[in-house]
Amino acid sequence: MKIRFDKMTVAFKEVVAVNQLDLDIPEGELVCLLGPSGCGKSTTLFALAGLYKPTSGKILFNEQDVSGLPPEKRGIGLVFQNYALYAHMTVEQNILFPLENRRVPKDEARKRALKAAQLCKIDGLLKRTPAQLSGGQQQRVAIARALVKNPTILLLDEPLSNLDARLRIEMREEIRRIQQATKVTTIFVTHDQEEAMSISDRLIVMKDGVLQQSDSPQDMYNHPANLFVAKFLGNPPINVVEGSVKGGKVYVGDQVIAEKKIRDCEKAYIGIRPEGFKIVETEEDKKRAFKVKIDYCEILGRDTTLHFNLGGVPVRAIVISEGDIKAGDEVLIAIRHRSLHVFDGETEVIINE
Ligand code: ADP
Ligand code: MG
Predict the structure, then answer these.
(1) Percentage of residues of the chain with pLDDT beyond 90
(2) Over the stretch 46-55, which tens digit does the pLDDT of each residue have?
(3) Ligand 1 site: residues with CB under 6 angstroms?
């Protein structure tokens, strides 16, 4: 199902949880809704599910306004962080539950439950109760239960938050696999940027109820729309230094650190990804290079992290380990063009070339 938010606002008295959201979600994609706690992710999902009504604006499914449609008529499967399984029922009964009251013949219901269980790889656990399952298995049951209705939209609200680190990685790959097998339009809410980057076709970043950017993970990483998005994506995070731009030159203090064909800006934030630095070796690179004094080095096998100071800010550069740079060395460094992002110092919006 294709989803469109048309200037949708959801307010709770004075709190505007989602503010004028304009957004299109194409059919069949796995989309991650990403942002810090309280930015309006769950409210957006609950509005899609019909549990909250927009204060203004609309939600459209395949161009049809569904803003007034009750939850049970929307064809949505929901999965929450706390699996919300019925403790006194078996796995099979839990998965079958949404089909009760739907006049699905018993045989067909059981077939569908088995199919959903197979897809989620829990068909060997049907007679167990939730207490006899691990966290990851319980979440698989919750996903199977959401899928048994053959939803046209699957919504997952921080489904992995209760799992340990290893299981989280395993389960996010499982969610990706299940989504690709079913092709159901899926919205996955998380505050974990790495989780979001790793599985989604599209990322949607929100802050304070306001959409910041919607793009493919790689495009958003390479072309952040503003400083908030640039800082939210990437681990280790982007380095941010105050500077300025004049005549196509990017300055930190009096030092030119790069050239970029952008407008002048007296006060700018300069964002440089850790992998965006290179140790200068060729004559060509020397023209764009500047000297830094290494505070310390972390050698991590393939990569080395160099720590130095730029414009009074400690920065981190990740370079391939070679040569023998040590603390105290002065090295010539240059910035790779695509890893350098300049933001307006007032609006924090990217200054484009
Ligand atoms: P997220 O899921 O991104 O953490 P939420 O959508 O839950 O954020 O909340 C967004 C904002 O709306 C927060 O400020 C939250 O306190 C507020 N909020 C959410 N639900 C309610 C509610 N039922 N009543 C009042 N305020 C709410
Ligand atoms: Mg939430």
Answers:
(1) 88
(2) 999 999 999 9
(3) 12, 15, 17, 35, 37-43
